[in-house]
Amino acid sequence: MKRVYFDHSATTPVDKTVAETILEHMTEKFGNASSIHRFGREARKAVDEAREKVAALINAEPNEIFFTSGGTEGDNLALKGIAYANRKKGNHIITTAIEHHAILHTCEYLEKQGFSVTYLPVDEYGMVKVEDVAKAITDKTILISVMYANNEVGTIQPIAEIGCIAREKGIYFHTDAVQVAGNYPIDVKASKIDLLTLAGHKFHGPKGVGVLYIRRGVRIEEIQHGGGHERNMRAGTENVPGIVGLGKAAELAKNEMQEKIVRISGLRDRIIKEVMEKIPHTKLNGHPTQRMPGNANFSFHFVEGESLLLNLDLKGIAASSGSACTSGSLDPSHVLLAMGMTHEVAHGSLRITLGRGNTAEEVDYFLELLPEIVQRLRDMSPLYGASADIKITNPCSECHVHAH
Questions:
Q1: Of all helices (H) and strands (E), which one includes residue 257?
Q2: Which of the chain's ends, N or C, has fewer CB atoms near its CB within 10 Å?
Q3: Looking at residues 175-189, what average pLDDT do you find?
Q4: How far apart are CA 277 and CA 111, in angstroms?
Q5: Which residue ranges form the domains of the chain, and what is each CATH number?
Q6: Closest by alpha carbon to 308, among 273, 287, 282, 336?
Q7: Residue 397 scores a pLDDT above 70
Q8: pLDDT tens sequence across 318-371
Q9: With the C-alpha atoms ordered 228, 231, 234, 239, is the resulting torsion angle positive or negative?
């Protein structure tokens, strides 16, 4: 049976060169980067080189890169660190209703600590309006946090425009770029981003390591205490193998990005076009053009998403119905609900996320199987029999989705 992996937004396979680099720093160059002997100096040099490679990926300075355990820790450090350090200036935070739970749950925690949070709505494509961000600002606003691109529907937000507003108002701007870094160009200087979160396992690096970019001069308080690691920002012995692996993955991602975007966007466009043409009562979720190169998210009416995933898995195809972090939940996607979708339709969502290793042959296999699986599941639905009188409009169905 074929094995096809279409779930790269959940995680990516570690690049073989990256894995070799990690192994070398686990078995041969295994020193503690805080030790002053040769083993330690060797590890410190490797960490510093990784810092430079990650900085180059997002057009930052090396001393603005702080290594973490991943996206969740980075989001927590960004939000709590800014909130605690600037509470005398204000207590208001602006975010969106479609953020990852690492942001939403941290905001809920901060509300219990006396902070006020505005959760901005999004339109039917999952896009936040720049004017809504501007209107939400008060004299107590200290932070705006808007994800660079949504992890479920792939919509890319107007980050540069929001960054300009925040900079003009003297408000810190954070973006969760976990889905974007290494997969789509980022320029923290041009977009006026003050803080940015990324994770290595989203672009062929290891799990358990990430970065919080903190622009020089940003007032932030550390939330993890201990030794003076990461220039007193993040206590704890550095995960040298993970950091070095992340650095190598960043270097590879930067070198291959444009070619990868063009190729994967082409595969994505074909999936969207054929699914919309071959399967009736289907809606494309997310923005038709401003979306991540590898993301195709659909809602199939009269189909339950988990059954769809299990049927695809039986044929060797791995996909998802939303965020991997909520895969055990029976609740429909909070992202799709925020976009105005009903619970019933949101339950029938399918997220296909392509990566570097996917091929046209794998897309052929998927497109051959999906229509018959959807039809078989619909035939089992008591609601499908009444579908003849239902017309579902989809403004995206006739759109050509361009590569970025």
A1: helix 240-278
A2: N
A3: 98
A4: 46
A5: 4-9+257-389 (3.90.1150.10), 16-254 (3.40.640.10)
A6: 282
A7: no
A8: 999 864 454 555 678 999 999 999 988 888 999 999 999 999 999 999 999 999
A9: negative
CA 348 vs CA 123, 282, 298, 322, 398: distances in Å: 20, 10, 8, 11, 21
- Helix, strand, coil share (%) of the chain residues, nearest 5: 45, 15, 40
Of the residues 107, 164, 325, 396, which is catalytic? 325
Please state, as a whole number, how many other Cβ atoms lie within 10 Å of the Cβ of residue 61: 14
pLDDT in tens, 126-145: 999 999 999 999 999 999 99
Is 325 one of the catalytic residues? Answer: yes
Judge whether residue 384 has pLDDT over 90: no
Summarised one tens digit per residue, pLDDT across range 294-304 is 999 999 999 98
Give the mean model confidence (pLDDT) for residues 63-80.
98
Write the CA distances from 86 to 42, 91, 126, 167, 292, integer angstroms.
38, 8, 30, 16, 33
Q: If pLDDT is split at 50, 70 and 90, which confidence band does 232 have?
A: confident
What phi and psi values does residue 312 have, to the nearest 5 degrees?
A: -65, -40
**Residue-by-residue DSSP string for 85-114:** HTTTT--EEEEETT--HHHHHHHHHHHHTT
Residues in the chain: 404
Q: Measuring CA to CA, which residue among 342, 339, 303, 340 is closest to residue 321?
A: 303
> What would the 3-class secondary structure string for 32-85 be?
CCCCCCHHHHHHHHHHHHHHHHHHHHHCCCHHHEEEECCHHHHHHHHHHHHHHH
CA distance 298 to 334: 15
Q: Mean pLDDT over all residues of the chain?
A: 93
Spacing of C-alpha 101 from chain mean position:
11
402 pLDDT above the threshold of 60: no
Q: What is the pLDDT of residue 347?
A: 87
- Contact between 346 and 299 under an 8 Å Cβ cutoff? The reply is yes
Which ranges in 279-389 belong to alpha helices (H)? Answer: 305-314, 334-338, 343-346, 360-379
